[in-house]
């Protein structure tokens, strides 16, 4: 049932550190859904309203803080924090993401 919730195709870029240099590699297309965070989430995360979003991804996907996500419209987001949630017997990832204009 929750698979119908993953109705967008997103691109996930993994941050890889080699020596003293960090760069994004391993760009993968993943199913997911991006939604604006509510007022409470923006206040809790000390974010600016309109820049803080939540993304929902299948639990099989590996994410970590600092990874980037690009949506179908080309907007870029950086993962700030994430946790595993459940919907009945099915686990999924809920991540707080921040919209960014460029890659760091």
Explain what the structure shows:
Helices cover 6% and strands 58% of the residues. The chain is built from one helix and six strands. A hairpin with a 2-residue loop joins strand 5 (76-87) and strand 6 (90-100). The longest helix is centred in the middle third of the chain and has 6 residues, at 39-44. Strands 1-2-3-6-5-4 form a six-stranded antiparallel β-barrel. It has one domain (2-98): Thrombin, subunit H (Beta Barrel). The protein starts with 7 loop residues before the first strand and ends with a strand. It is globular. It has one helix spanning 39-44, and strands at 8-18, 21-36, 52-58, 68-70, 76-87, 90-100. It has 104 residues and is mainly beta.
């Amino acid at each position: 049932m929750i698979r119908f919730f993953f109705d967008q195709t997103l691109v996930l870029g993994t941050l890889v550190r080699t020596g003293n240099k960090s760069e994004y590699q391993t760009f993968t297309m993943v199913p997911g859904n991006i939604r604006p965070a509510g007022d409470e989430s923006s206040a809790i995360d000390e974010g600016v309203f309109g820049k803080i979003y939540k993304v929902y991804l299948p639990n099989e996907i590996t994410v970590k803080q600092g990874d980037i996500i690009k949506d179908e419209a080309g907007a870029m987001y950086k993962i700030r924090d994430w946790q595993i949630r459940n919907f009945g017997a099915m686990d999924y990832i809920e991540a707080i993401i921040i919209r960014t204009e460029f890659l760091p």
